[in-house]
Structure formats: structure tokens, C-alpha cells
Amino acid sequence: MKEIFSLSHPVVQHLVKLKKSKEYRVQEKSLLLEGKNCIFDVTKKHKAKRIFITKEMHLPTECQAEEVIVVSKAIIEKISAVKTPDDIVAELFMPKEATLSSQNNIVALDGIQDPGNLGTIMRTALALGWEGIFLIEPCCDPFNDKALRAAKGATFDIAIQHGSWADFGTLVAKNGYTVLVADLQGSLPGAFIKEKKRALILGNEAHGVRAPNELAYQKVTLAMNKEVESLNVAIAGAILMYTLTQRESS
């Protein structure tokens, strides 16, 4: 295996730029993934460009990579975005942009800014059988370190499409989605359980969903104690996604 121990090595500089810059990630079509267990799980299904490990780290034989490089702990610490990193970091190919025309249940995120919320929603959507994520710009980058950590690998297994409100409107019109907007003034979601194709829109943490007037949609909400004004968008989204996918058991 190749070894790198210099903090000024060009590969190390490349990795630091991947960590810090969305534009550079898009240019290179690469991202950095951290977390030993997450890397092990993801690279068993998706081949990494490169995996960087210290001499103390044991890499399972099932993990796939074009190249495995031994580095120092100092290099891991330099390229890591966490205070106490594991002795492993992976550079992976950025997932290809998807077109959500064949999925039955999708989640649209309107200007979500917190990467932890974004990653959690993606992981929850995958777990509950929702098949795609439509990111309505401006939305935080699903490939930054915080979003990737929160998603815990879901980023590589769920379809992701970026676009504008106009792009989203075209998608739902062509594919016959029932569009549901999470809103405090909405109806309970039970009425929409039997719909075959649904697009659930979750809104910005501060402003909610800002759907254009020409978009046809229904508002849905949760029955909550009146003492509680609202829920975190990732929690509310999880409950709505779970409720709306109980068609088989109803």
C-alpha cells in the first residue's frame, strides 16, 4: 500500500479542499466520508476512490476502494472535521444526480439550511421506504461533513435531485404526484394514506414552506399539544413520513 506522511503532500491539500469547499467537491465529483462504521458499511456497497487509514486501523476485506493509503494520525486530524476522528477517512465518488420520475414517494426540502436536519431527513426517508429527495434551492449541501454524518450512509442509497420550484412543479405535474405541504394549519395526514404517489414538502426551519401560488397542494399537520408551538423539521418530517406510509397496515 502507498504511504503518505507529509502534511503538505498534494493529496492532503486536495482532501482539505474537499472538506471545506462545496464548489471544489462539485468540480472534483468527490466527497469525504468519516466515521469508521459508516465507511465500512458504505464501501461494502459502493467502491471508494481512496481510503486513508493509519497503521493501527484494520480494514475489513469487504470494503472496496481503488486505492488504500496509509497515513499518519496527524494527517487524519488535519483532514477530519471532528475533534476526535477515527483512524480512517474515505474519499468517495459523489452520487450522480437523479431524476425522480419513477419514484412513488418523494420528500421535497424547501431551503433547508441545517445540515444535521437534512442528513437526518434523508436517513429517515430511506428507512421508511421513501424513494427520493428533491432539494429545492437554496438548500444546504447534502455532501458536506455534517449532513453526511447525520445521514449515516443514506446519501449513497437514496435518489437525490436538485432544482428550482419550477423544476419541482414540472416533475409533479408530469408524474401525477399528490403534493402535501407540512403546515401548522393543515389537515391530519390520514386522508392521504391511500394515495399511490406522494410528494411531501418540508420547509425551511425559520420560514416554513414557501410554495408558489400556481402549485396545487394540500396542507398536512400533526395533532399536537397546544402548549407546543412546533417541532423540529426532521422530527415532524419523520412522523409524517411514517404516518403516510402505513397504507399496507391500514
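the 2nd protein, sequnce then structure:
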Amino acid sequence: MVTLLIVSEPDIASTIQGDALLKRGGWIEIDDVEGGRVWKHEIKGVYLWWFGERLLMEDALDTRFAEKSGVNVDEVIFLSRHFAASGRPSLTLHVIGVPGEYPHGEMAQHGGVKGKVMLPNSRFASWYRLMCQFAHQRGLAPEFELTIETTHHGPCLEVPTMFIEIGSSETHWGRVDAAEVWADVMEIGLGLDGSQGIGNWNSIPNDEKSVAKVMIGIGGGHYAPRHTDVLRKTDCWAGHQLANYALEMDKPEDEEWDPDTGVLPEGPWQHAIRVCVASTRSAFPGGMVMAHLDRKSFKGWQRRVIKRLLTELKVPVGRTSDFE
């Protein structure tokens, strides 16, 4: 298992995470890649690439690194800043892609391709719980909001990917204590302390995979509080999370239309759910992919058509207790 951690030189929230991890020791500097310094860990197949530019528009960083270094990458984790208009300090993480945007195939405003999602990194859910643990141990909570985000923005890669972030404004991006939390997560989560690590789907036996529940979150706002609650209260895995803004649908005008039997509404919602289900299944082969709906964020007819589509895709819908 080869993990590539990518730091963005112009992003202070990224560089302080990289600095905090390097200071833990155990790193050997190797040849540069695309002008950026690279370190390899002594006991694990983990590489840290100090990339010279911002990340969102830089596609194929996994294959570019492999071509220059000769090392094939199995997963990528981006160390990044997070911006929110609220300005509230936060630690957050999310998987990537641009579901629910038209026209499909066009470059999206913040990187990625409209209608396309990347493979979710299997560490997403377990690292959220690990982040909460270390944030409380280091006294960052309740000052810092501890949350996930729904799937959004680029870049495009071939391997499972996620972002880990410090937010939410310039005031917080340079917080060393926040960077130390993420360094704790990376050290334990990747097994840099000599342990096995946490959240690698490929490391668990096939019989465990067959009963492991993988949550796709559907509905709600960008910070997905109801889906976050499932991750906090259970040990489930998680794939893509879809906010309402990625699920626009147009109710048919026919007064006789029945959401249980009539034509499915037009809009990007169908494609968004289909690609997120397919991507999550690819990232968790053999797992029990299930959906969790933020029911209150939908009208009744919307819930019914979403459940129709999920039934077609053979994705059961569960409440929090079903993911335990």
C-alpha cells in the first residue's frame, strides 16, 4: 500500500500540516518530483510531496508522481485549507468530485469535471472519528467545529482520494495546534508509529468486508450534519456524500403524476446518485453499500423518487441504527 500525501506550497494550512508531520521524524528525503521536495517514511510506504502550486486544478497528480518517481500510488491525501464565510474555526475532511453540475464533461469552477466523481478514500469515516478523538485530547473542541463535507471540487485522479483541512479563515489556517491534530491522525492512521494503520479497506478480510456497512449520504447541507452524526455514532465506512444542491430535480407538471409509478423527474439528481453509488462500490469492493437520507431536507415526493432510484440500484436505505 503506497500512500501519497500532497502539500501545497502556497497554502499555509497545508504547509503547517506537512511541517508538523515531518517533525515527528522517520522521514528520508529523496529525489524531487516536478521541482517539489519529496520524503519517504522509513517504515511505511508513505510519501510526502511538497508541491509548488495550488491543488484544485492540478489533475493526474497520482500518475504524474508515479511517472517521475517510479512509485505507483494507491491512494492520495491532500493537506489543505478550508474556507467558509462563517469564519468559524474548523477541522474538516471530504472526498472529491463534482456531482450534480451541468453540462457534464466541462471543467468545473473549482477543479474537476462536471458530473464526474473520484474514488472515495476508504479512510474517510475512520479518520473523521480519529480527528474528533485527537481534537478533544488537544483541547480544540468545542472551539473548533469537527465536521465532514459533502463531495465537491477537483482535481481529477485515478486512485482513492480525500482532503483533510484546517478552516475556516486566514486567522485559523496557521494554527499549529490544529496542524498537530492532523499530524496525530496521519501518524496513527497510516501506521507511522509502527501500527497497522486505520481505515485501509484492503487490509480487512473478505468475510469482514461482506458485512461492513458503507454509507452514502444523500441530502442536507454542505456540512452534512445528519450524515456526520451517523459517522460519529457508528463504526461504519463512508463513500460519497451528496448535498441537496447536487440533487436538483424538476417535478413533472402532470397533476396525475405519481412519484411511485410515474416517470422519474428530470434534473441532475439521477446522474449524481448513480455515479456516486458506482464510485463508492468501486472503492469498497465486497462491502454493503447503503444510503442514509437526510429526510427532512426533502419534500415527500422527492424522498419517494430517490428511494425508487436506490431500489433500482439495489442500495438499501437505513437509519442511524442500521449502520451500527
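The chain is about 30% helix and 20% strand. The longest helix spans residues 269-283.
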